[in-house]
């Protein structure tokens, strides 16, 4: 039995056309009417036309899914670097911390008047005093989020004060730039909705 022909459908052996009804919510819709002649039915405008594949975008659904998977993997990798960065700060490990940065990395700090540090030696002069003497609740994680720039981290700095820092990365996954500034976490009901971004 042909699965394309509904049970009880009559088929004329001398013709390719058949008559059946499609049932839709209690009513019926004719699929073929005997009053239709084959010449009208062969009119090209009434036929289903093949899809033109030449104007489809180059990215197929499979390629788009692959690109999305790469983006997700990239976000996960970048978040992992930021977690390593925070762990190195907590353990007072200056060398491993600096190794996470690219050689041409820049640090823009808006916490104490706005200074910029570029290159490993400048980053070392910035981080050394902060890792040697810090408060017991320093480098506590508040929130970490992938962002359009890379990764945004809200944490407690070496003095235990809330800071927001945005990390951008180079193609090798090294930290290329960080921008930090103090922020006020919107945790209390009276400050809910107040922008907490300091820049």
Explain the overall architecture.
The chain is of the alpha+beta class. It contains 4 helices and 10 strands, in the order E-E-E-E-H-H-H-E-E-H-E-E-E-E. The protein has a 6-stranded mixed sheet with strand order 6-5-10-9-8-7. A hairpin with a 6-residue loop joins strand 1 (10-11) and strand 2.
Helices, by number, come to: 4
Global outline: globular
Average pLDDT works out at 74
* Structural Rg: 32 Å
Query: Strand sequence of the main sheet, in spatial order?
Result: 6-5-10-9-8-7
Structural class: alpha+beta
Helix residue percentage:
25-40%
SSE pattern: EEEEHHHEEHEEEE
Low-confidence regions: 15-42, 188-199
Largest sheet: 6 strands, mixed
Kindly state the number of beta strands. Answer: 10
Strand portion: 25-35%
What is the rounded distance between the termini?
72 Å
